[in-house]
């Protein structure tokens, strides 16, 4: 509380609120509300200070005063605000609400003040009571109290006046509120009307635009129609001849023009309605212009639009005038076309007359045609008769067809029967196939029995057999006979080939020996005259000898005949036997020819033919699951020395090949000898050529190609049955022995003599071995020669041996022929045990391993 409190006393008598209209003008009179500080009050306050009136009642009064001042200020402020609100016609509701709030607050404050006044009154009464109770206080104090009560009364009066003011203010506020509401409503209506006007304006604008667009479209349509009219005009000009079409088009055009007229009338009506609307819009726009100045611009634009529309209307009217003028011209054209149509009608009448004449002619023609039809009826009757005959033929053909169909059915049934038969045949074929397979099995069994029987036959025939082959007289031998006057006429000789003579006629028996073949195994040899004379002189009286062998081949016998007989032996080698075939005879008797063959084609000998037989049989047996492997070696024994005919290293120096015997198997083998695998006949041919090239030959007096050595071809055959597991080990020895002539007849000396001695020694050793075997001696002299030692495993009880005794038919060779035949006779009389098949022991493998490694 300030020490000098300023009290602003309100006017109690002359204070009154001015009206809102006057308030604004008398804003400066607000100062009148503040009055100078009353001297009595200051005295009161001074006395109050003096008496230290710092009591609750004084404080409240001060507080009340300050509040009253504050209220006065607020009221003044409110007054100012109200004036401002009044000045501002667009006072917001918020402000009004604030004012109302302020008014409410003021009311509340007034209520509070009244309450506090009551409180203060009560407090004053209490203080008064206190004053009275204390009595200490002076009369001034009571006076002051009275003044205070006066003051309070003043305050009450001021409060009353304030209440009056408040009521007046409230009334003013209510009136203001009412005015404000009215203003607000007016503003709202103004806004609404503005919006409506805007909408109407926009709508009018849109309508105007639409109308303008429609007018534009119509204008374009009119232009298009105009162009169409022009096109139609040109079309009419071009197609004058087509009247009907033109008329239609014209009608169409007229119709369209009428439609256009109607369209134009519609447009006129629309334009009129638009004008009415425009008028209304103008009125509206005038009203809007009156109300809103901003719409004036739009009004001007609308007026411009109106002007444009008016212009368009004028142009449309002008177009319409053009169209109407064109219509007039078109009507003129139509009239012209009508006149043309009349002309055409006249022409048509003329044509009708012409056609009538033509009709008359056609009637005449018709009568003529009717006559022709009658004639054709007659023809058709004839055709009917013909048709009937054809029908009969057709019936006959149908009967034939039905007959054929029956035949076809029969054939079909036959076909079915045949099919059934085929099925039966198929079944029988399958059964036959089964039978064939069974027969195959039987065949294999038969093959087994065949081998057994073949072996038995071989055994019955004897394990060593002798075939005698008499070679023919050679061409060169005939020439020498002629030159020597041994024979006088060459025509008596039957020449079988360029190089040989097959036979000599009986009249020639004087000078040449004769071989009279009694049967297939016996031959009678008649000595030549020369030999008979010498034998008489030497007291030998025999002139003919008979010999029996297993088979005798005449000079006419071919290589095939010979091989046919020995092929069974070759088969034995495949069956697992050891077979030994050798050719014996003097030089030039045909040993090499028999074993290897001649120079000409078709003269292949035993060795190549045996190989072919073995290959073909091996192939056949392959089907019975037999697999064969062949290996071959080729050697010669020359002067008791072994030479490898398959080696490439013939340096000229003789290498000593030793013959060994495998103790386990009894097989002989040559240590270090070449053994080659043979899988094709070509390989064998190559091998034979190579061996022939390596074979040593030397010309002798007897035969310029005489071989002076024994050649031994050994073929090792190992076979195995994949199915049964059976194994067979065969060995085929094919030996071309050296010439067996005696020393006296060969006339050899030196090296040739030594060769002959070795040959004779080995051949006599062979004879000894055979005779020992035949005599079943304990000791068989195999070791006496390299040949017998080598053939130890193939000459004996376990092997099959065949000896060819080759003889020459010449008189010069007769002595040697006799010797050979005698030797062969001895061999043929030998019985050398039973052959045994090698099945388990790998004889060939023993040969291969040892011969190849040592
Ligand atoms: N059966 C035959 N048919 C035709 N010509 C044969 C016949 N046998 C042998 N010759 C011919 O007789 C000649 C002598 O035959 P080959 O050379 O075979 O006798 P060889 O006994 O082998 O003599 P060597 O002991 O000297 O070898 C050959 O020219 C041969 O062509």
From TrEMBL:
Mention any Pfam family matching this sequence.
Kinesin
Query: Per the record, what is one GO cellular component?
Result: microtubule
- Entry superkingdom: Eukaryota
Q: Give the UniProt record's GO annotations in the biological process aspect.
A: microtubule-based movement
Recorded hits in CDD domains, A to Z, give:
KISc_C_terminal
GO molecular function terms listed in the Swiss-Prot or TrEMBL record:
ATP binding; microtubule binding; microtubule motor activity
Specify whether ATP-binding is a keyword of the entry.
Answer: yes
Q: Where does ATP bind?
A: 585-592
InterPro entries (alphabetical): Kinesin-like_fam, Kinesin_motor_dom, Kinesin_motor_dom_sf, P-loop_NTPase
Query: Which residues fall in a coiled-coil region?
Result: 61-242, 278-442
PANTHER family, A to Z: KINESIN-LIKE PROTEIN KLP-3 (PTHR47972), PROTEIN CLARET SEGREGATIONAL (PTHR47972:SF45)
Similarity comment: Belongs to the TRAFAC class myosin-kinesin ATPase superfamily. Kinesin family.
- What protein name does the entry list? Kinesin motor domain-containing protein
Organism of origin is Galdieria partita
């Amino acid at each position: 509380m300030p020490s000098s409190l300023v009290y602003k006393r309100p006017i109690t008598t002359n204070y009154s609120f001015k009206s809102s209209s006057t308030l604004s003008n008398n804003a400066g009179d607000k100062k009148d509300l503040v009055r100078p500080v009353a001297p009595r009050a200051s005295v009161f306050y001074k006395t109050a200070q003096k008496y230290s009136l710092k009591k609750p009642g004084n404080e409240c009064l001060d507080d009340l005063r300050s509040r009253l001042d504050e209220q006065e200020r607020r009221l003044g402020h409110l007054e100012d605000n109200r004036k401002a609100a009044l000045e501002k016609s667009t006072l917001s509701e918020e402000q009004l609400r604030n004012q109302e709030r302020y008014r409410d607050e003021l009311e509340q404050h007034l209520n509070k003040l009244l309450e506090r006044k009551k409180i203060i009154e009560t407090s004053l009464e209490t203080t008064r009571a206190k004053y009275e109770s204390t009595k200490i206080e002076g009369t001034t104090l009571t006076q002051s109290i009275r003044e205070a009560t006066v003051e309070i009364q003043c305050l009450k009066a001021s409060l009353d006046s304030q209440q009056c003011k408040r009521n007046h203010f409230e009334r003013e506020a209510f009136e203001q509120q009412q005015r404000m509401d009215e203003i607000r409503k007016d503003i709202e209506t103004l806004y609404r009307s503005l919006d409506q006007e805007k909408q109407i304006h926009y709508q009018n604008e849109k309508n105007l635009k639409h109308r303008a667009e429609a007018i534009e479209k119509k204008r374009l349509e009119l232009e298009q129609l105009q162009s169409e009219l022009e096109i139609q005009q040109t079309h009419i000009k071009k197609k004058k001849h087509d009247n009907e079409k033109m008329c239609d088009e014209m009608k169409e055009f007229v119709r369209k023009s009428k439609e256009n007229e109607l369209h134009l009338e519609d447009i006129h009506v629309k334009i009129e309605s638009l004008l009415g609307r425009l008028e209304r819009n103008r009125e509206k726009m005038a009203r809007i212009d009156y109300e809103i100045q901003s719409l004036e611009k739009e009004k001007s634009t609308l007026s411009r639009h109106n002007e444009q529309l008016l212009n368009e209307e004028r142009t449309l009217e002008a177009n319409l005038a053009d169209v109407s003028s064109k219509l007039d011209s078109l009507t003129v054209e139509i009239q012209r076309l009508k006149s043309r149509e009349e002309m055409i009608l006249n022409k048509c009448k003329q044509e009708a007359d012409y056609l009538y004449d033509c009709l008359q002619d056609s009637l005449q023609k018709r009568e003529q045609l009717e006559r022709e039809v009658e004639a054709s009826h007659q023809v058709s009757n004839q055709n009917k008769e013909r048709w009937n005959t054809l029908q009969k033929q057709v019936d006959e053909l149908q009967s034939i067809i039905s007959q054929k169909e029956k035949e076809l059915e029969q054939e079909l049934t036959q076909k079915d029967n045949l099919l059934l038969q085929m099925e039966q045949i198929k079944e029988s074929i399958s059964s036959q196939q089964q039978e064939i397979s069974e027969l195959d099995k039987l065949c294999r069994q038969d093959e087994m029995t065949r081998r057994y029987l073949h072996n038995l036959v071989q055994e019955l025939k004897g394990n060593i057999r002798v075939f005698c082959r008499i070679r023919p007289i050679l061409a060169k031998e005939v020439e020498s006979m002629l030159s020597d006057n041994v024979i006088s006429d060459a025509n008596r000789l039957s020449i079988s080939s360029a190089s040989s003579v097959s036979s000599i006629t009986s009249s020639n028996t004087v000078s040449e020996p004769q071989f009279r073949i009694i049967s297939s195994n016996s031959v009678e040899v008649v000595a030549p005259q020369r030999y008979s004379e010498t034998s008489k002189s030497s007291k030998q009286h025999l002139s003919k000898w008979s010999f029996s062998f297993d088979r005798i081949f005449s000079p006419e016998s071919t290589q095939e005949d010979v091989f046919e007989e020995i092929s069974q032996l070759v088969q034995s080698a495949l069956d697992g036997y050891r077979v030994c075939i050798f050719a014996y005879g003097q030089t030039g008797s045909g040993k090499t020819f028999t074993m290897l063959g001649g120079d000409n084609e078709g003269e292949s000998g035993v060795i190549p033919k045996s190989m072919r037989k073995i290959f073909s049989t091996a192939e056949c047996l392959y089907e019975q699951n037999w697999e064969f492997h062949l290996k071959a070696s080729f050697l010669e024994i020359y002067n008791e020395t072994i030479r490898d005919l398959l080696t490439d290293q013939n340096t000229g120096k003789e290498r000593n090949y030793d013959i060994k015997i495998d103790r386990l198997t009894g097989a002989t083998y040559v240590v270090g000898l070449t053994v080659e695998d043979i899988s094709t006949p070509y390989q064998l041919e190559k091998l034979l050529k190579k061996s022939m090239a390596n074979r040593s030959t030397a010309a002798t007096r007897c035969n310029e190609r005489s071989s002076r050595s024994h050649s031994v071809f050994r073929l090792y055959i190992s076979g195995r049955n994949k199915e049964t597991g059976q194994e067979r080990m065969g060995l085929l020895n094919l030996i071309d022995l050296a010439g067996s002539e005696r020393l006296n007849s060969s006339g050899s000396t030196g090296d040739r003599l030594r060769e002959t001695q070795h040959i004779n020694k080995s051949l006599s050793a062979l004879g000894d071995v055979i005779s020992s075997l035949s005599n079943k001696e304990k000791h068989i002299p195999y070791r006496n020669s390299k040949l017998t030692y080598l053939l130890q495993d193939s000459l004996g009880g376990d092997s099959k041996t065949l000896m060819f005794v080759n003889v020459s038919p010449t008189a010069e060779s007769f002595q040697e022929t006799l010797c050979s035949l005698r030797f062969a006779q001895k061999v043929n009389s030998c019985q050398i045990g039973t052959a045994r098949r090698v099945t388990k022991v790998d004889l060939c493998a023993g040969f291969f391993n040892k011969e190849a490694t040592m």
